[in-house]
Design a protein that fits this description.
By secondary structure, the chain is mainly beta. It has one domain. The strands form three sheets. Strands 3, 4, 5, 6, 7, 8 and 9 form a seven-stranded antiparallel beta sheet that branches. It has a three-stranded mixed beta sheet with strand order 10-2-12, with no helix packed on it. The protein has a two-stranded parallel sheet with strand order 1-11. A hairpin with a 2-residue loop joins strand 7 and strand 8. The longest helix has 6 residues.
C-alpha cells in the first residue's frame, strides 16, 4: 500500500496599500511648468468631482512627483466650473500670499489628456492630483483580509513604502467607484 502525500493550498498575496486624500481632486489634463492654472476633472455627468475650496493650500503631485518629495504647494486663488469641457479651472497663487498669482515649479502628467472622448480610467498608468494640506488621508483597513481565504493557508505581504506605489493618491468621489467597471482595469 502506497501512502498519499498531503497537499496544502497556500496563497501568498502582495498588496499595494495607498493612502487617499480626504480632500482634493484629479487633474483633468497634464499641467506644464509655469502654468498659473490647473484643470481638475469633473464626473462623466459633469458634476463636480473635487472637494477643494478657494483659499485652500493644495499639494499638487503625480506618479513621478510624490507628495512626500519635490512637488508644488500653492494656494487655490479662484475656481471656475467649465461644464462644457467637464473640468474645473483652478487658478494658483503663492501659498503664503493667496492674492499673488504664481505658476507651477514642476510639470505633472495626468491620466486624461483633456480630450472629451478620453475616459477617466487610469489605463495610462498616470495620475496627477491635488490634496488639501492638513485634510488627512483615508487608509485601507487590512485587518480582516484573511476572511475570504479561510479554507487555505494565506500570507500577505503589505510593504510600507514601495517605489512607484504605496504612496498617496488624489481624492476620488464615491460616484467614480460606482460608475467604473474594473474589468481589466487596475486603478
Amino acid at each position: 500500500m502506497q501512502a498519499t502525500g498531503n497537499i496544502t493550498a497556500w496563497k501568498h498575496i502582495h498588496i499595494e496599500k495607498d493612502k487617499m486624500c480626504r480632500k482634493g481632486g484629479i487633474l483633468k489634463q497634464d499641467a506644464a511648468q509655469g502654468w498659473q492654472v490647473v484643470y481638475l476633472a469633473m464626473n462623466q455627468d459633469s458634476s463636480i468631482a473635487d472637494n477643494v475650496s478657494i483659499n485652500d493650500i493644495i499639494h499638487i503631485f503625480d506618479s513621478e512627483r510624490h507628495i512626500d518629495v519635490d512637488h508644488d504647494i500653492k494656494c487655490l486663488k479662484t475656481r471656475t466650473e467649465d461644464v462644457g469641457n467637464k473640468r474645473t479651472i483652478i487658478e494658483l497663487a503663492n501659498k503664503d500670499n493667496c492674492a499673488q498669482v504664481e505658476g507651477l515649479d514642476y510639470a505633472y502628467d495626468a491620466d486624461d489628456n483633456g480630450d472629451e472622448s478620453d475616459t477617466w480610467d487610469f489605463n495610462s498608468g498616470k495620475s496627477a492630483g491635488v490634496c488639501v494640506e492638513g485634510s488627512g488621508f483615508h487608509e485601507a483597513d487590512t485587518s480582516d483580509l484573511r476572511q475570504p481565504f479561510n479554507d487555505t493557508f494565506v500570507s500577505f505581504h503589505i510593504p510600507m513604502q514601495v517605489e512607484n506605489g504605496a504612496g498617496e493618491v488624489p481624492y476620488l468621489p464615491q460616484i467614480w467607484f460606482k460608475n467604473t467597471a474594473f474589468s481589466g482595469v487596475h486603478p
